[in-house]
Amino acid sequence: MIWDVHTHLHGVDGRTPEERMARLLKFADRMGVERVVLYMGFPFLTDPTTEQLREQNDQVLQAINHYHDRAFAFVYLSAKHPDASLRELDRCVKDGPMVGVKLWVARRCHEAEIDPIIRRATELKVPILQHTWAKAIGNLAGESHPSDLAALSRRHPKASFICGHTGGDWAIGIRAIRDCSNVVADIGGSDPTTGFVEMAVRELGAERIVYGSDAGGRSFASQIAKVQGADIPDAAKKQIFKDNLKRLLTPILAAKGVKP
Fold this sequence. Notes:
Order of helices and strands: EHEHEHEHEHEHEHEHH
CATH superfamily: Metal-dependent hydrolases
Distance between the termini: 13 Å
Radius of gyration: 17 Å
Strand order of the largest sheet: 1-2-3-4-5-6-7-8
Shape: globular
CATH architecture: Alpha-Beta Barrel
Structural class: alpha/beta
Low-confidence stretches: none
CATH topology: TIM Barrel
Largest sheet: 8 strands, parallel
Number of helices: 9
């Protein structure tokens, strides 16, 4: 069975969060995806206000309300709004059902403004998934390069980070985080090219890779193919598809008294 670290309501048809969630899980069922991690609502925003962050987190809470046996959720935060993000972190994780943090593109993650969020997430024992990309045409304003995440991870060695998309250009991303033992690679969202997972296993070790799809921006099938078609041992595929994410979530699930 498969646990998916990277799914969204955006890109899935439906008028309400509930309708979108039901449709997302219908697709997941076809591909043997047992559990999904959900974050960010709709519409798609690159620089949300504090009010929009709360609204999108409410949409995710609404979406998972009847699917706690199938879905985990990460709280959507922004380093551009650290005080509001800390309030959301406590509301949705400390006092709510969410089990991780999602950071996107409003501010690059190597900047010091993000530090209070990272410290609080570390106290709560939750993993932090940071979107990263290395675009040949140049990143969006505030979009983190995988080397930014490497710098952040060195500043916070006790935090647990997930490198979203492994930087898109995965050869660059893998090398950027190679010596950062508290960072795992999320392989979701890019094309299912030969060699990606093989290089990640060779350079990082299978224990530092987690499967993600980026659904509904990408299909479950194309992203599963990255692992299924990789020339790696079956034991490594099992780690990537489920075991590693389960291990990352164990501290916060244990703190909440939740059996994975």
